[in-house]
Design a protein that fits this description.
The complex is a heterodimer.
Chain A lengths: L1 H22 L9 E8 L6 H21 L7 E8 L4 H11 L7 E5 L1 H14 L2 E4 L4 H4 L5 E3 L4 H15 L2 H4 L4 E6 L3 H4 L4 H9 L3 E7 L8 H9 L4 E3 L4 H14 L4 E4 L7 H6 L7 E4 L10 H12 L10 H23 L6 H10 L1 E6 L3 E5 L8 E8 L2 E4 L4 E2 L26
Parallel strand pairs in A: 1-2, 1-3, 3-4, 4-5, 6-7, 6-8, 8-9, 9-10
Antiparallel strand pairs in A: 10-13, 11-12, 13-14, 13-15
Helix pairs in contact in A: 2-14, 6-9, 14-15
Chain B lengths: L11 H5 L5 H20 L2 H26 L7 H17 L5 H20 L7 H21 L2 H4 L5 E2 L4 E2 L2 E2 L3 H22 L3 H11 L1 H6 L4 H27 L1 E2 L6 H14 L4 H26 L7 H23 L3 H15 L7
Antiparallel strand pairs in B: 1-4, 2-3
The chains are: A alpha/beta, B mainly alpha.
């Protein structure tokens, strides 16, 4: 009994130390910093997007801190966490950050987490800059802002171009399209009913739909099926890893199919890995391309990557998504702090300012955003194509139709309650 | 179970009691009080951790009944969690049911689906049965991905609102914590008691030797289905809470990794004991949290390109390493280690009872 009592007392003493620590609220960050939170899957399915994106974030922060001397007297710093594509891990990381007063701006990538946390971003008043653009992840308008166009709009851009290029008189019919995509939220984002309606409206005949894996072992079977169905074009939310074997097999079989993909398929390895077979693959992106060496932003990014000792093979196009996150908050703070001071910066003010950016806000020449009270995504993009072993733009920036379900449209309704007590430091 | 010297059972009630001694009662009451007052001083992060631990615990208790007690290996437990989650989500989203009314239905739906996938257990055992439950993982998730898009909304998933009840808004973690913890405690007590009754003893007999159990009069097929039904009922309840905690369900939330993780919890905690599930879930969740804490710190010591790989590498390695080490050195899990420690403590300074 004496031993039991001793153990009990020891447990009580330990508890007195442990539980207050668990319950304590984290201290606010040091004053001279503005903390940007980055929360993404960096190791599993979306690791290939988010690791280069983290490099982009780090390089942009380096540029702001070193060359611009910070933003309005403060330096940026990044706190990141890898949620390993597991919502349980993501949720606890989010809960760890949520009570912090400086948790007002977060970079996110992934439709899954945006869909799950969409309402909570608004409740917790954290502005999110995200490249996961499923409709229900971004809309109804709230605190999440996209850095890439909606996938439906990206398809529309592709559809517009192929229809414009199609010689109706010569062919005697409209273009025929087969969808070949992944059986995931990302992949199936191009199979929404509104996309089918848009294709029909444009005179495109959808002849086939297939699901394929990311790593295609047998490319001949799906391609043969699409060809037998009479397809001229293949469209899918597919990545370069998938596009490469498809393009090669298409060339080997002599099918002559043309491919289209979304911004995540527009990536540097495709022309390298696909070689001649990749020539003519199309995609939509609102961003500048590494091949545009005369562009001032590309020159800046190239210089920074050299200074930072980045390897060329690590700089996939999602690298620019990281830059976009940082430049967004950089511009926001530069616009707001002179007006309201650091004490006046909170998430609600950030969101309102983003909504004031309006149509086609030019983010340092990298990308143009359409952020208004009811728009949360970029609305202009270019169709790019593999030509001469690299991605090159084949159209100027074009405005996309904005294909959103009617029930998701409308401005964000700000609550009448005062803003949460948050500070930018 | 050993008890301190001088404690004897002189009535059947004492022999059957789960909590037998005054110190045990004191610890139990103290623990329950601690759980009750935790939201008063714990931060939102810790409450979030407790909620997720509670949800995982309910699912693992179900798996423990199915695999730990009845010996029916399941590699698709997360799919049954998905059935519960979707049941709650659809009932709340499409039919505007109250959350609390959907919880038992989520359990029943998962139990029904569990029975369906338990049918092969009549003819299959061990690895072969594991393969059929693995099939459940894929079939069920594909079903939610493709069937009834008007209700399940395919990959878009379903948004779920946290409940309001009797003027209490369960949107904040402080309130929802009580919902999860109460259900987790009740389900754990039920699991503990379940295996002490006729049904539980039949499960254990089945696990140890199904042929012998049939000889002594246990209807093997029926009890196997009972095990599936009860195990999956637990999974369904966990799924219901899961959907409400995350406020959204999506086929991608319910992947195979989590099913395997549940099995790991059982191995680490100790299969075939109700407290083993508790130890396993808490232990592995703490490790997981520790990894998310430490990986950004460690990443400062490696190249930026390698930095993001540290967290997942640590997460996978630590999980796998812990499971392997337990399988080698303590296959009966933390529950057994705890019993050994208690026994050592009681017999000290002797090494074992004399």
């Amino acid at each position: 009994m004496r031993k039991t009592c001793l153990v009990f007392v020891a447990l009580v003493v330990i508890s007195l130390f442990v539980f207050p620590t668990l319950g304590s609220k984290p201290a606010a960050a040091k004053e001279e910093f503005f903390t940007i939170y980055f929360w993404a899957d960096m190791s599993r399915v979306y690791g290939f997007v988010n690791v280069p994106r983290l490099l982009g974030i780090q390089d942009a922060v380096y540029w702001v801190n070193k060359e611009k001397g910070g933003v309005q007297g403060r330096k940026f710093r990044v706190e990141w966490a890898d949620h390993t594509n597991d919502l349980a891990v993501g949720a606890t990381v989010y809960e760890r950050w949520r009570p912090r007063k400086n948790f007002i701006f977060m970079a996110v990538c992934g439709s899954q987490e945006n869909e799950a946390f969409h309402d909570r971003y608004a409740e917790d008043e954290v502005v999110v800059s995200s490249c996961g653009v499923s409709e229900t992840g971004m809309y109804p308008a709230g605190y999440a802002f996209a850095t890439i166009p909606l996938y439906a709009d990206q398809f529309a851009n592709f559809a517009d171009v192929i229809v414009e290029r199609w010689d109706q008189k010569k062919q005697g019919r409209g273009p025929r399209l087969a969808f070949m995509t992944y059986d995931t939220p990302f992949g199936k984002a191009c199979l929404q009913p509104m996309i089918m309606e848009y294709a029909k409206k444009k005179g495109i005949e959808v002849v086939d739909q297939q699901f394929i894996p990311v790593i295609v072992v047998d490319a001949a079977t799906p391609l043969t099926r699409a060809k037998k169905a009479g397809a001229d074009f293949i469209y899918g939310q597919i990545l370069w890893q998938t596009m490469t074997p498809l393009a090669k097999e298409n060339e080997r079989l002599g099918f002559g199919l043309k491919f289209g993909t979304c911004n995540f398929g527009v990536d540097e390895p495709l022309p390298i890995m696909g070689g001649k077979a990749a020539e003519g693959v199309m995609g939509t992106t609102p961003y500048r391309l590494w091949s545009e060496t005369n562009d001032p932003f590309i020159q800046l990014a190239t210089r920074i990557t050299q200074e930072q000792g980045r390897r060329r093979k690590d700089l996939l196009n999602s690298y620019f998504l990281g830059w976009a996150n940082i430049l967004t908050i950089y511009d926001l703070l530069n616009q707001l702090v002179p007006k309201v001071g650091w004490d006046g910066v909170n998430s609600r003010v950030l969101r309102r300012q983003l909504e004031r950016w309006g149509k086609e806000y030019d983010l340092h020449g990298l990308v143009k955003f359409d952020y208004t009270s009811d728009s949360r995504t970029p609305m202009v993009a270019r169709l790019v194509e593999v030509k001469g072993g690299q991605w090159v733009p084949t159209t100027p920036y074009r405005r996309m139709p904005g294909i959103i379900r009617p029930d998701l449209k409308g401005p964000y309704k700000e609550p009448s309650t005062p803003p949460l007590p948050k500070k930018a430091y | 179970m050993e008890r301190p010297a001088g404690i004897f059972d002189i009535r059947y009630e004492q022999d059957m009691a789960i909590v037998r001694t005054n110190p045990q009662w004191a610890f139990l009451i103290g623990f329950l009080i601690l759980l009750t007052v935790l939201p008063l001083f714990a931060g939102s992060y810790f409450l979030g951790f407790m909620i997720l631990t509670g949800i995982a615990l309910i699912a693992v208790q179900g798996l423990n009944i199915l695999t730990g007690y009845a010996g029916q290996i399941s590699l698709g437990h997360q799919a049954f969690v998905a059935v519960g989650a979707y049941t709650t989500a659809v009932l709340m989203d499409s039919f505007h049911w109250n959350f609390f009314a959907t919880v038992p239905l989520a359990g029943i739906a998962a139990a029904a689906v569990g029975v369906l996938f338990g049918l092969p257990s009549f003819r299959l055992k061990m690895l072969y049965l594991a393969m059929t439950t693995l099939a459940a993982q894929f079939i069920i998730i594909a079903f939610f991905n493709h069937a009834f898009p008007d209700y399940f909304h395919s990959v878009g998933g379903i948004r779920v609102n946290r409940p309001e009840f009797a003027g209490i808004n369960f949107r904040n973690n402080e309130a929802f914590y009580y919902v999860v913890i109460v259900i987790a405690v009740v389900m754990t007590i039920i699991a503990k008691n379940l295996v002490r009754c006729r049904l539980g003893r039949a499960f254990v007999a089945l696990r140890d030797n199904d042929l012998a159990s049939e000889v002594i009069g246990i209807h093997v097929a029926r009890y196997k289905l009972y095990a599936f039904a009860i195990g999956c009922f637990y999974a369904g309840i966990a799924g219901s809470l899961w959907a409400t905690y995350y406020r959204s369900v999506n086929p991608l939330h319910f992947h195979l990794d989590v099913s395997i993780w549940y099995l790991g919890c059982l191995i680490v905690g100790g299969m075939g004991t109700a407290v083993g599930a508790v130890y396993g879930v808490v232990f592995l969740r703490v490790i997981r949290e520790f990894v998310t804490f430490i990986s950004p710190i460690l990443s400062d010591f490696v190249s930026p390109m390698d930095a993001p790989k540290i967290g997942p590498a640590l997460g996978i390695i630590s999980w796998a390493l812990v499971v392997i080490l337990f399988l080698i050195f303590e296959p009966r899990g933390l529950a057994h280690t705890w019993e050994v420690l208690k026994s050592r403590f009681r017999h000290w300074p002797f090494k074992y009872a004399v």
